[in-house]
Amino acid sequence: MPILDTPYARLDLIRQPEQPNEPLQAFDAADEYLLAELHPRALPATTRVLILNDSFGALACALAAHVDVTSSGDSHLAHLALQKNLARNGMPAERVRFVPANEVAQGPFDLVLIRVPKTLALLEEQLIRLHGQLAPDAEVIAAAMIKHLPRAAGDLLEQYIGPVQASLAVKKARLLTATPAQRPVPISPYPTRYRLDQPKLELLNHANLFCREGLDIGTRAFLPHLPKALGALRVADLGCGNGVLGIIYALNNPQAELTLVDESYMAVQSARENWQAIHGERPVEIRAGDGLAEQPPASLDLVLCNPPFHQQQVVGDFLAWRMFTQAKAALRQGGELWIVGNRHLGYHLKLKRLYGRVEQVAATPKFVILRAIKG
């Protein structure tokens, strides 16, 4: 297990979700560069530091014993990683306050450290929410690996914070330091909305939503084939995003009991607001979670899923496979998992190994809709 060796602490860190023989480490050169840059400043213990998008808690764990740390991000898995890594390195959980990205972290903050997220809309919303939360003489420092640092990130820092100075590259990482200047009170362009024609619905999407400007093509292929009139089944929309699959399934199955789960706090907020707008006070459970890890065994009849094929910048089917495994545990005997996936990903073979019986419900030139039955 790689050790993060910094001027502040020597840390044993794990990623979330854990997997055997983890090929990736829970930190990178951008974390190391940022911590090395900070250390000569000898920050007072009273310094209020806000850390944004700390993927697995590397920055928060390194600084927790030295300054007053608040961490904020949109990933429930990142929050779990922070909690586990604090405990793993002998620190109490209360050393770091965690604020989900759909809430505003309360300043004033003397220093803001940002890991530039994959979704620049999330960065924009986070910078907008910093307005009025910075102490006099505060500094905002963003860090990223150069291959994941678009020019637009610096433009957003300039627009919402102030003049930006880029560092030299170190181990293919770079820092952007913004000096706060007078800026007008920003008006957030988020959430955005889009309309569906069939059924006629308007859906709201907070900043970090996948396909925020319109329905993604996989879900578009899935919707016409969602099962109808199945009665009072217990159904989960796994990786729900803005809730579109669960919401439309609920329209077609008025007796169904729905659970909507996503690891993004902004997705959960979007799903909750969309459900209320469309279904009013109809009972539902909508929660942030590590997939169906917390779902009681054999408690569901049906799981709907449009699985992701990446975690942050890392592409692969590990998360999808994990969701399929969680769904099997949560389904009763004879329960079904319905998914949409790109043809080339070979989900049919993976599901057949796990469930035994798999049927193709429908297909387009790009996607397949599959039904796996728990035997």
From TrEMBL:
<keyword id="KW-0489">Methyltransferase</keyword>
<feature type="domain" description="RlmG N-terminal">
    <location>
        <begin position="2"/>
        <end position="181"/>
    </location>
</feature>
<dbReference type="GO" id="GO:0005737">
    <property type="term" value="C:cytoplasm"/>
</dbReference>
<dbReference type="InterPro" id="IPR046977">
    <property type="entry name" value="RsmC/RlmG"/>
</dbReference>
<keyword id="KW-0949">S-adenosyl-L-methionine</keyword>
<dbReference type="InterPro" id="IPR002052">
    <property type="entry name" value="DNA_methylase_N6_adenine_CS"/>
</dbReference>
<keyword id="KW-0963">Cytoplasm</keyword>
<dbReference type="InterPro" id="IPR029063">
    <property type="entry name" value="SAM-dependent_MTases_sf"/>
</dbReference>
<dbReference type="InterPro" id="IPR058679">
    <property type="entry name" value="RlmG_N"/>
</dbReference>
<protein>
    <recommendedName>
        <fullName>Ribosomal RNA large subunit methyltransferase G</fullName>
        <ecNumber>2.1.1.174</ecNumber>
    </recommendedName>
</protein>
<keyword id="KW-0698">rRNA processing</keyword>
<comment type="function">
    <text>Specifically methylates the guanine in position 1835 (m2G1835) of 23S rRNA.</text>
</comment>
<dbReference type="InterPro" id="IPR017237">
    <property type="entry name" value="RLMG"/>
</dbReference>
<comment type="similarity">
    <text>Belongs to the methyltransferase superfamily. RlmG family.</text>
</comment>
<dbReference type="GO" id="GO:0003676">
    <property type="term" value="F:nucleic acid binding"/>
</dbReference>
<dbReference type="Pfam" id="PF26049">
    <property type="entry name" value="RLMG_N"/>
</dbReference>
<dbReference type="Pfam" id="PF05175">
    <property type="entry name" value="MTS"/>
</dbReference>
<dbReference type="InterPro" id="IPR007848">
    <property type="entry name" value="Small_mtfrase_dom"/>
</dbReference>
<keyword id="KW-0808">Transferase</keyword>
<dbReference type="GO" id="GO:0052916">
    <property type="term" value="F:23S rRNA (guanine(1835)-N(2))-methyltransferase activity"/>
</dbReference>
<feature type="domain" description="Methyltransferase small">
    <location>
        <begin position="201"/>
        <end position="371"/>
    </location>
</feature>
